[in-house]
Amino acid sequence: MLAFQGAERALRTWEPTAAHLNRSVGGSRFVLVPLDLDAMSRAVAGREVDFVITNPGNYIALESGFGATRLVTVESERSGSPIAAIGSTVVARGDRPDLDTLAGLKGRRLAVVSTEAFGGYQVLWRELAALGLDPSDDLREIRQTGFPMERVAQLVRDGLVDAGVLRACLLEEMIAEGALAPGELRVVGRRDEPKLPCAVSSRLYPDWPFAKLAETSHDLAKQVAAALLSMPAVDGQAWTAPQDYTQVHALMQDLEIGPYAHLRQHLNLAELARRHWQWLVIAAMAVLWWVVHVARVEVLVRRRTAELEREIAERERAENDAARHRAERDQFSRLGILGEMASNIAHELNQPLAAIMNYARGMSRMLDGGQADPAMLADGAQAVATQAERAAAIIQRIRGFVRRRKPRRERLDINEVVAETLALFESLAGRRGIAVHVHLAEGLPGVSVDRGEIQQVLLNILQNAVDATAGQGAEAGDGITVRTSPGEGGVKVAVRDCGAGLSQEAEARLFEPFFTTKPEGLGLGLSICRTIIEAHGGRLWASANPRRGLTLRFVIPPAEAPA
Ligand code: ADP
């Protein structure tokens, strides 16, 4: 049996029951083993005992832990009914009328016999919990006095605590014994419980059970139950039918103790924080570090982005400048070529102008001589108009070439571009006594080019060829040959001359800007030509002829097939 007040007192209480069993149940000997709560668990687990007499709380634990089954319940004269026998009474000093309700215990010092006690603590704990109070948080202090429980009453009386918890009826018993004067202590949170003849502050629970354990023989248990039910009362205490202990289950469930302690596993956050505050601090520092780090990275990224944007803007500006310079240089070069061709142009224009003059003079003579044949005059006027158109066409071509404009790609036949360019050029070569031979291949793929730029390239190369050929005398008799042919998937244009050819230095530096061997030369022509051809996705190169002179070639890839 549970000896919560010491072995001696327990033996005294239960001796009559043991004696009765030894008398009534033949073939078995009954020995009382007084145990505290821990020893009780060990003894039951080790099957050292067959029956237990214990308080309702401990019984519930044994029932769920070890299959204990109640046979009978104590019936005591002191507490009216075995189903409503155990309760808690909270007492305060009689001169403390301010402490009247259980809610008023908040922030007070409370004396209890032990926090393990059922009637002495857990029963009241459930009432406090129902009011939303957690004794370990909301009371200023819980002082455990140990048995006997009368000590709780003494601490309250002496003012060492504000209130104390007694099992129901102990207050009345102490007054009856003269240990307390009536009115010396008053009941806090008194409830009306008609089944119990004592003042009480809690709900009531069934009295102690007598239980068999799982392995105890069923027959023996039956004999024991029968013997106990027929036991006459000793000191107002006997055994009656087993009571319903569901309310005790409910208590343990509410408080998450005993068999329901596992419910407590869901530790509340505050508890967790209290236990693991070091980790929380570390985690908080880590989060803080991370926030600072992210903020820093953000700032760095912004700064770098701004730098990059500035750099990009600068590069765009530089590119725009470069494009402008390129355009200016191209224009400059076109004007250069024009300058070089100026005499050629003058010569070309001279022819239609001279013809116009001749026609005009002839017509005027006809009129003067009075033999104005209208048909002949009309022919003459027609011829003048034709020559004037020819002059206009020459000027038109030159203006078209010189005019500055945006490059515009169109799908063209390279032979057409070559023929057009030669029309601008041929008479110049002719006047210098240099023959120009043309071989245009049939069926070349179309190319996507800027007409003016390709003309510029060709004129440059032709002009260089004329410069190199002029003054070479009879040796240059073969003149200049312009040839188109299929090449490298696209078209190839070759300009071959029989001129002076290149020195070694000139060969290495031919395409360098400002490399020139001519007194009036700029040295920009070929470098610009290469830029233009490469912009068309092609290639421009020079190679010495086997016999004499130089050949310049460029290839242009074919235009993509029209969609
Ligand atoms: P420029 O004609 O103003 O000198 P280019 O870049 O067109 O500038 O030519 C650079 C140099 O390359 C010329 O001065 C000349 O020495 C040389 N060169 C170009 N074409 C030929 C050629 N067909 N034969 C010999 N030398 C050439």
TrEMBL record:
<dbReference type="InterPro" id="IPR036097">
    <property type="entry name" value="HisK_dim/P_sf"/>
</dbReference>
<keyword id="KW-0175">Coiled coil</keyword>
<dbReference type="InterPro" id="IPR036890">
    <property type="entry name" value="HATPase_C_sf"/>
</dbReference>
<dbReference type="InterPro" id="IPR003661">
    <property type="entry name" value="HisK_dim/P_dom"/>
</dbReference>
<dbReference type="Pfam" id="PF00512">
    <property type="entry name" value="HisKA"/>
</dbReference>
<keyword id="KW-0418">Kinase</keyword>
<keyword id="KW-0547">Nucleotide-binding</keyword>
<dbReference type="GO" id="GO:0005524">
    <property type="term" value="F:ATP binding"/>
</dbReference>
<dbReference type="InterPro" id="IPR005467">
    <property type="entry name" value="His_kinase_dom"/>
</dbReference>
<keyword id="KW-0902">Two-component regulatory system</keyword>
<keyword id="KW-0597">Phosphoprotein</keyword>
<protein>
    <recommendedName>
        <fullName>histidine kinase</fullName>
        <ecNumber>2.7.13.3</ecNumber>
    </recommendedName>
</protein>
<dbReference type="InterPro" id="IPR003594">
    <property type="entry name" value="HATPase_dom"/>
</dbReference>
<feature type="coiled-coil region">
    <location>
        <begin position="301"/>
        <end position="335"/>
    </location>
</feature>
<dbReference type="GO" id="GO:0000155">
    <property type="term" value="F:phosphorelay sensor kinase activity"/>
</dbReference>
<dbReference type="Pfam" id="PF02518">
    <property type="entry name" value="HATPase_c"/>
</dbReference>
<keyword id="KW-0067">ATP-binding</keyword>
<feature type="domain" description="Histidine kinase">
    <location>
        <begin position="344"/>
        <end position="560"/>
    </location>
</feature>
<dbReference type="InterPro" id="IPR004358">
    <property type="entry name" value="Sig_transdc_His_kin-like_C"/>
</dbReference>
<dbReference type="Pfam" id="PF12974">
    <property type="entry name" value="Phosphonate-bd"/>
</dbReference>
<keyword id="KW-0808">Transferase</keyword>
